[in-house]
Amino acid sequence: MNILTNHLPTAELQRIDAAHHMHPFTGGAELAAKGTRVITRADGVMLTDSDGHEILDMMAGLWCVNIGYGRDELADAASRQMRELPYYNTFFQTSHVPVIALSQKLAELAPEPFNNTFFAASGSEANDTNIRLVRQYWAALGKPSKKVIISRTNAYHGSSMGSGSLGGMAHMHAQGGLPIENIVHIDQPHWWAEGAEMSPEEFGLLRARQLEQEIDALGEENVAAFIAEPIQGAGGVIIPPETYWPEIQRICDAREILLIADEVILGFGRTGKWFGSEYYGIRPDIMTIAKGLSSGYAPIGGSLVSDHVAEVIGRSDFNHGYTYSGHPVSCAVALENLRIIEEENLLGHVNDHAAPALAKAIESFADHPLIGEARSLGMLGALQFTPDKSRRVPFKAPKGTIGQIAREACFRNNIVMRHVGDRMIVSPPLILTEEHCEIFKERAGKALGETYATAKAEGLL
Ligand code: PMP
Fold it and tell me: Residues with Cβ < 8 Å from 165, sequence gap 6 or more?
């Protein structure tokens, strides 16, 4: 029996899923008891599940479906490429046309001096590449002691041993022996949660200067790089104070360390610019890319490498690479995706229509009794829950209790939002319209109403 074409009842799909499929970041027993939602189709910003519900996807999958679902052009590009050359590698003095074309296109889209890409199949793999790239860079320059990479608490850079170590997620580090050696974390610029009585501007400077202090504590001769997401995504859509990035850039300029901007979420239009680094006016040495590069239609990631780093790395063999580095089908799909973003002027749509509409919708929740901060930037938004709007305080209940209630209410109301602790976040496709925002306001409004009622009934307020 072909399960793909046989349209089994939802309960049967859930049973098989629970019996045989281990889900990421999920407890199997709890999930089996609740049952998974089985997504069967999608178009634009809407998902359809196996029971026929139409769900508004305010997360663009996992922050990745930038052009929206259902674009036949990408399916056609994949099909064409699979028929012509489904696979070949880029090791051993070989290359192929899709990877050549995509490398050229990325060099054209990225700011100077980014003219080289090292490909991977995901953001995690690309960040693992980055660990090796920056250490090899210093070793090739005769400074092999420069190994330490400074990252931040509550950062997310992936789930492999290397990238999970770069990340600053305590619940990930608690399992499996992370972080690996020579990765250290400074504090995040999360003013709402950690800024106490300081102004956001003061707090931004304070947190940025931790980088300088950490370099001094470790010894500059031991530090290879600093890595950060220009806006933390999975950490809760944390938009840093305006003083933060200029100060980080000043420190990176003054010190002999490389700056890695993890653009896995921000890259390809989420801030209204091609890259988040352009939005903040920062000048990294390496940028991690994935997600929006193919809008999630095919797995692909990579490291955009600036000229001076690429030149040093190129002086000898770089003993690193993946079977799927520059996979031809993924490259062909990515090229078609970039063509659509460019030719349909999706950045213009974000700046002129989608981001202002999203901002209005997010701000419409600012007066809700549970919400202490309602904020967006480009196509990223966050709603922070608090029991006391005037004081930026957390709940007495364990962190995430209200967030989980809200996420389940969203589920019931056919809208996908994610919760990070007691913060609800959105990252919708860039093609979002005002009509979508109306649906968002209506469904999220209902979900928030139900959350408030449950929180009251359970004595959490
Ligand atoms: N970096 C950032 C900033 C991310 O948000 C993610 C994924 N959410 C990753 C890296 C890892 O990407 P992947 O899941 O493709 O390995």
Answer: 173, 178, 179, 180, 183
